[in-house]
Amino acid sequence: CSSCTNFFIGSSDFYVSGINDLISEPNFIEDFKFNDPIILLSSDFVAIYNESFHAEQLGYINICGAGYRKSLEFLVKKYAIHTHPKDEETIAKQTLSQSINNYIENPKIKALASSSAWIGNDEIHYIKKHDDKSYIDMKHFIKAMVSYIEMELTVEEAASIPSK
Question: How far is it, in rounded angstroms, from Cα 35 to Cα 105?
């Protein structure tokens, strides 16, 4: 596209009719922007979340929920490892639920992570347990969780500055 410089695939019948009819329009797919503390904590979370966000923007709503659920697992495990680095191997091997229950200490983060995991499981299983919730709710909870985690990481950074 000469306006936005994004790539797209188009087709026309210019040579047949003499009129250039564009059959497809450019797709404007954007990344969700995360701040540096989250990117530094887990670039995998950011990448998986954005792949899911891209799928959602393209209308693939039947698969984006599973991707958001996967991104949640990477965020929770990386955060748990950050707060309990000696237990990295254990955290890496356990289920998401175990990581949340055993290693997430902030009750607000724990509540958001647990609810997101329940909704995420519904997104990948045949029978839903939470019919009134969807990937949209999970995404909302993940964003709130990201805010709390980012706040805690920022407080850690501030606390590491020695007083004079």
Answer: 22
Q: CA-to-CA distance for 122 and 7, rounded, in angstroms?
A: 35
Residue 150: pLDDT over 70: yes
Q: What's CA 68's distance to the chain center, in Å?
A: 5
E strand or H helix that includes residue 80: helix 61-83
141 vs 10, which has greater pLDDT?
141
pLDDT for 17 equals: 56
Contacts of 121 (CB under 8 A, 6+ apart): 69, 129
- Residues 6 or more apart whose Cβ sits within 8 Å of residue 136: none
pLDDT at 119 (0 to 100) = 96
For 41-77, give the secondary structure using H, E and C. HCHHHHHHHHHHHHHHHCCCHHHHHHHHHHHHHHHHH
Output the CA torsion sign for 80, 84, 88, 90. Answer: negative
- 92-106 pLDDT per residue, tens: 999 999 999 999 999
| Cβ atoms < 10 Å from Cβ of 69 | 23
Q: Give pTM, 2 decimals.
A: 0.83
CA pair distance 78, 161, nearest whole angstrom? 24
pLDDT for 50? 97
